[in-house]
Amino acid sequence: MDVLRISTTPIQLSMSSQRARLESKIPDPEAGIINQPGRLEIRSENIKVNIDTFDARQSMGYRTGLGIMKDSAQAGTQAAGDATAQYAKMGNQLAQIQNGVTPADVMKQFTIPGPVTTGIKFIPSQGPDISWEAPDLDIDYTPGKVEFEPKVDFSAGNYVPGKLEVNVEQFPKVEIEYVADPLYVPPRANPNYEE
User: Fold this and answer.
1) 3-state SS class at 19
2) What span, in angstroms and rounded, lies between the C-alpha atoms of 176 and 67?
3) Contacts of 58 (CB under 8 A, 6+ apart)
4) What global pTM score does this model have?
5) In sequence order, what E strands does the chain have?
6) Label partner for 181 (CA 20 to 30 A): which of 53, 54, 77, 173?
7) Using alpha carbons only, what angle is made at residue 16 by residues 12 and 17, rounded to the nearest 5 degrees?
């Protein structure tokens, strides 16, 4: 027969842990973009043609007012010079009368026209004066480019150390209970004692 009843309660522990961590805030990346477009420059000069028809028109008889006056002045000077030379020549021959020259012969020599000459010529006798300046083309190309300017912001990190917690939820215990009838000494001290 068991006199004692022993009951035990084990210890109950709870554990919680937290890992170590590094807290850091990473800012959103920013980048500045500078775009310079390409540039194409084209400079061109067309061909320049110079046509001078002044001499060709002169050879066909088409003259300007200034040219007519100039030619008339030159022709008048020439005619005056020719007439002066003719009169001087006629005067020299008339002065030779003692050599048997009569004034009628001298006058006849100077009044009868000489032979007439005709000629065929192509007109205009001079062609136009043509000159030109060659065309020019200049191309200047500057390629486009893109530049990136990243903005980097480094933030300091915050270190949180790890943690381990142990909690005692229930302490251990041992309970000893006497389950038999009590023993009285002397036995008559038992209230239920019978003789």
Assistant:
1) coil
2) 156
3) 67, 126
4) 0.32
5) 4-9, 12-18, 21-23, 30-36, 39-45, 48-52, 129-133, 136-142, 145-151, 158-160, 163-170, 173-178
6) 173
7) 145
Q: 116-136 pLDDT, tens per residue?
A: 677 777 777 788 888 988 888
**Going by C-beta distance under 8 Å and a sequence separation of 6 or more, which residues neighbour residue 99?**
none
Q: What is the mean pLDDT of the chain?
A: 82
User: CA nearest 153: which of 26, 13, 4?
Assistant: 26
Q: How far is CA 6 from CA 11, 179, 182, in A?
A: 16, 10, 17
DSSP characters for 132-150?
EE--EEEEEEE--EEEEEE
Tens-digit pLDDT profile for residues 136-154: 889 998 888 888 787 777 6
Q: What share of the chain is helix, strand, coil (3-state, %, to 5)?
A: 25, 35, 35
Buried b (16+ CB within 10 A) or exposed e, 101-123: eeeeebeeeeeeeeeeeeeeeee
Q: Residue 112: its pLDDT value, please? A: 67
